[in-house]
Amino acid sequence: MAWLWWVMLAASLPILALVCGFALYAFRRERRGQGLHVRRFVIGWGLVFPVSVLAVLLVVSLRTGEALLARPEEPDVVRVTAIGHRWWWEFIQTDAAGQALHSANELHIPAGRKVEVRIEAHDVIHSFWVPRLTGKMDAIPGHPNLLRLQADAPGVYDGQCAEFCGLQHARMRFRVRAHPPEEYAAALARLAAARPDPAHPGATPFAQNCASCHSAEPGVAGAAPNLAGLAQRDRLGAGALEYRDAGDLRLWLTRHERIKPGSGEPSHAALPAAELDAIIDYLESAR
After folding, report:
1. Superfamily of domain covering 79-193
2. Would you say the C-alpha torsion 130, 131, 137, 140 has a positive or negative sign?
3. Is the peptide bond preceding residue 87 cis, with omega within 30 degrees of 0?
4. CATH number of 202-285: 1.10.10.10, 2.40.50.200, 2.60.120.260, 2.60.40.420?
5. Residue 80 pLDDT more than 90?
6. How confident is the model at residue 67 (pLDDT cuts 50, 70, 90)?
7. Are 129 and 50 within 8 A, CB to CB?
8. What is the pLDDT at residue 141?
9. What are the residue boundaries of the structural domains of the chain, listed by start?
10. Residue 176, phi then psi, degrees to nearest 5
């Protein structure tokens, strides 16, 4: 897409110069009373020239757009699923063992390989957009769309819902983490292993207060964001709050209704401090 933009810029600059030149030429002839060959200008520069230029740009843009389309039969493509919820993103991908891994607001991909994203919506229309990697694609309930993206270099690429979907639309962000190809399998393995110890003291209060919506198992889907590997992330609430330590997690659990109004998560402020501490330690233990 960046290449297409440069092609269009390169084509537009000489066209702009040509139009300005013809305008000055016409003014000068009119001031001298010489007039213009209107028919020649209209047919040549008003019809033939723009049609020719636009035809070339059309071919270039169609070829570029075609490269963004997913092709199910193409080999060596990483396939993932992105599901838009109000107001967070669920990602489903498969590790080397064939296990489905569910994560929230973070997608792991290998750099240098094509990735096919199946885009779905759970409730209303959203739009999947990673500006540095690909164009926008709507997430429509009941109508999955396919989008192709590729990160040429390892790094972290920010994404955003690009279709207004309600109160917290602006805070429906996510990140794509592109790993070096040789480290991609290990990254998925870390996510698959990022499950808290069921014998942890916080497992019981988590089950009593959180497990009806959230899962801490990467292979299990839930009605709310999957919390497996939460301690590996650096943001909470789909980008609403930076996550640096347990204090930030406590802040989110006790004040999230003020940080992200309308998120649908019930208040945890009334939980006894000991239970809240146990839940926080339980979630942070899965790294």
Report:
1. Cupredoxins -  blue copper proteins (2.60.40.420)
2. positive
3. yes
4. 2.60.40.420
5. yes
6. confident
7. no
8. 96
9. 1-32+40-67, 79-193, 202-285
10. -105, 120
Is residue 237 classed as helix, strand or coil in its secondary structure?
coil
Residue among 139, 147, 138 at smallest CA distance from 122: 139
Does the CA dihedral 161-163-164-166 come out positive or negative? negative
Cα separation, 13 vs 31, in Å, equals: 27
Q: Which of 117, 101, 119, 120 is nearest to 215 (CA)?
A: 101
Q: Is the dihedral of CA 98, 216, 105, 166 positive or negative?
A: positive
Query: CATH topology of 79-193 equal to that of 202-285?
Result: yes
Q: What is the pLDDT of residue 70?
A: 65
In 10 A of CB 265, how many CB atoms?
17
Tell me the C-alpha distance between 55 and 58, whole Å: 5
- Greatest mean pLDDT among 17-26, 83-92, 215-224: 83-92
Condensed to tens digits (0 to 9), the pLDDT of residues 235-270 reads: 999 999 999 999 999 999 989 889 999 888 887 878
Location of structure tokens 């107001």: 87
Burial environment of residue 11 by CB neighbours within 10 A (0 to 12, 13 to 18, 19 or more):
middle
Verdict on whether the full-model pTM lies above 0.90: no
Q: For position 228, what pLDDT does the model report? A: 85
Across the range 153-180, mean pLDDT stands at 95
